[in-house]
Amino acid sequence: MLLAEPMTVATDGLLAAVAVVLALRLLRPRPGPGVRLMAAGFLALAGAALLGGAVHGFGPRLSLGARATAWALIYAGIGLANLLLLAGVVVALVPPRFRTLVLGALSLRFVAATILSMGRGFTFVMGDIVLSLVLLLGLGLFFTLARPRPFGPWLLLAVVASFLGAFVQVSRLSPHPDFNHNDLFHVIQMGGIYFFYRAALFLDGQPLTRKRPAD
Prior knowledge:
Rhopdopsin 7-helix transmembrane proteins, disordered C terminus
């Protein structure tokens, strides 16, 4: 059985694998709540990527209703990953007494965005992602320039990579007929989640990786 878009299936699968590996690495050292949320965001992204790869590969064989349902689930997965990454950064930075309020507000936004995205396709989802990226950009700039913290530069790199991926997706920039805008988007996303991973290592105030013993 031939795949309709083999390169897109491959890059979706690779993106999912990278996201799962990085999520497991974050969860191994018993991190704080913010980092756990970011790891959950990676897993949500992996699920959306796997389902996206299946639709790109077998879409022509699916009914219109099945494809519509699959895309709705993919958009919801992307939105959930978007929510969890933002929530992870914010929750790691705010005092514990404000965490419930922050999570409640972000959850309401996710529900509203998911409902509004139905029937509007990826354009609305991308708009929701851009809103989160703007908030993360502000945090990255603040903790890089105004009050430097180790995670600040990594967060900035993650946001820049994510904006670049959004530009590729919206502009449908295709480097080659056999490597289209979706494939390039997935590759850029891999870099973006790696930068988010590096930022997450410092979100609990110190790297989660064990220090090497002194020589």
